[in-house]
Amino acid sequence: xxxxxxxxxxxxxxxxxxxxxxxxxxxxxxxxxxxxxxxxxxxxxxxxxxxxxxxxxxxxxxxxxxxxxxxxxxxxxxxxxxxxxxxxxxxxxxxxxxxxxxxxxxxxxxxxxxxxxxxxxxxxxxxxxxxxxxxxxxxxxxxxxxxxxxxxxxxxxxxxxxxxxxxxxxxxxxxxxxxxxxxxxxxxxxxxxxxxxxxxxxxxxxxxxxxxxxxxxxxxxxxxxxxxx
Amino acid sequence: xxxxxxxxxxxxxxxxxxxxxxxxxxxxxxxxxxxxxxxxxxxxxxxxxxxxxxxxxxxxxxxxxxxxxxxxxxxxxxxxxxxxxxxxxxxxxxxxxxxxxxxxxxxxxxxxxxxxxxxxxxxxxxxxxxxxxxxxxxxxxxxxxxxxxxxxxxxxxxxxxxxxxxxxxxxxxxxxxxxxxxxxxxxxxxxxxxxxxxxxxxxxxxxxxxxxxxxxxxxxxxxxxxxxxxxxxxxxxxxxxxxxxxxxxxxxxxxxxxxxxxxxxxxxxxxxxxxxx
Lengths: 229, 277
Description:
The complex is a heterodimer. Helices cover about 35% and strands about 25% of the residues of chain A. Chain A is an alpha/beta fold. A two-stranded antiparallel ribbon of chain B has the order 1-2.
């Protein structure tokens, strides 16, 4: 399996449980949602981890998405940043580069440094749909974990990353429209899917069934994701 | 001629052919893959999501980082070379050479990782900003390229004819005068080769640069701004690139190949000039 680095930590936990319950080895790789689809298309992987909606072109190719959980996208800043929350509109303007100083949103005066993901990232696609695009000339890092590392170090930085990675700590998560990540009503939620070319079969089907079983969904909740209802 | 000799010669010829064809195949793959998108590279906006593949910001990133690395590694490397040739007692010189070889053996990703923990925070504290920057990449590249420069510089300095030195000492010159006014100028062709080699090596570096440069796809306005190189663009985007984007990345690869061939050629020209002396 290959694809989204947002889904990867969750699948690692699920794969470990699956193997402990007697299932075959699941081998995993990151690379981002679009890269995962490329891997399935070229038969390098059986399933892709995709954290965004499939495009019309991709659906027409025969890709099928199976929702396994709902992910919470957090907005992370340095622990020393006094800003506690943003409205969705403020967030949109921040990402777009219209807000350039933290003082404009209630923080200490200083430049805002937005960190974006690469274009093929499912997280980026979700943020662009839920909030809006980031300005073009920001720093770009290619994984959730990397964003957490830099935001943890840099007081002026702000980035978005999956709750499953942000939970590891050391970054401050902002409220959006007054809600903390994980609270009902938090707006930045998106489906996490496993994608197959055609209907899932064989080992892929078996693993998917395991994930959608009560045992699998319990693990999903433990990881900080929202289970499929 | 003995049959075994003939067979041996044939086997060696095969090996040579395989090796030579390697570089041809790489060049062919890159050029064939990127040919249609080559004209797209002329432009100042790299925005693949909009179908714009102007590679000038990437080229600027590559050149600026590599020149920065050369600016750091060349003086340090030549200084190290001089130290090894003129100053260091043999045991110390030997130890230093071993250290340099060890430094050259450190994997690129380890350099990047260490830089993320040491260099990037320092730049952030000193100059503000994210810390992920041209400067961070230049510093890391200086460290990566230094062993090569020092080794080539030492060879170039050692190659200066002993007769020249003896003559200068006989005329009453001090060691400092001999080193500064005689040995360095005499070795300048080899030292120029070392400098160009450093540039070539720095141009090709990917992993460490990808980790500390911030990968902003735009012209950096200061050394503390993030930027993207040709190499990190390929590494970052190749996994998901399709169609014209993929071709544009191959074209960047072709551009890199040309840059490297040019620097290697210049380095050899410079070095051979030295040998004539």
